[in-house]
From TrEMBL:
Described purpose of this protein according to its UniProt entry: Forms a complex with DNA polymerase epsilon subunit POLE3 and binds naked DNA, which is then incorporated into chromatin, aided by the nucleosome remodeling activity of ISWI/SNF2H and ACF1. Does not enhance nucleosome sliding activity of the ACF-5 ISWI chromatin remodeling complex.
UniProt protein name: Chromatin accessibility complex protein 1
Gene: Chrac1
Domain Transcription factor CBF/NF-Y/archaeal histone: 17-78
Species per Swiss-Prot/TrEMBL record: Helopsaltes ochotensis (Middendorff's grasshopper-warbler)
Alphabetized UniProt keyword annotations: Acetylation, Coiled coil, DNA-binding, Nucleotidyltransferase, Nucleus, Phosphoprotein, Transferase
Keyword Nucleus: yes
One term under GO cellular component: CHRAC
Length: 130
């Protein structure tokens, strides 16, 4: 049986592109996981690979990829934002914004946090700062 398992794992490695050892490390990083069955490891790797393929294909088809004949980060982040299936990736694939715009957003959040949202004083304070 061990010989068959060894042959099988050699075949499995050719059926997936992602490194099984890395996927095992990621799976083991979860405190709930104590041991990992070879079949579960292989299926997780294959499912991840197919998911990434689906995300890339969808993003390419629905983005500007076809125009440029390339898949861009913007295509991926647009998919995460617009497609309900991929919205759980929105934090991982955020829209790119300029650092200056991000800093302004942080400042606004900080001001909104200090002054109540219903309070009009926030706008007056903003004018004084200018």
């Amino acid at each position: 049986a061990e010989m068959a398992a060894a042959r099988l794992s050699g075949t499995e490695n050719r059926l997936v592109s992602l490194p099984l050892s890395r996927i095992r490390v990621i799976m083991k990083s979860s405190p709930e996981v104590s041991s990992i069955n070879q079949d579960a490891l292989f299926l997780t790797a294959k499912a991840t690979e197919l998911f990434v393929q689906y995300l890339a294909t969808y993003s390419y088809k629905h983005g500007r990829g076809k125009e440029k004949n390339a898949l861009t980060y913007t295509d991926l982040s647009h998919t995460a934002e617009e497609c309900e299936t991929f919205q759980f990736l929105a934090d991982i694939l955020p829209k790119k914004i300029l650092a200056s715009k991000y800093l302004k957003m942080l400042e606004k959040e900080k001001r909104d946090g200090e002054v109540g949202e219903d309070n009009d004083e926030g706008e007056e304070e903003e004018d004084e700062d200018k």
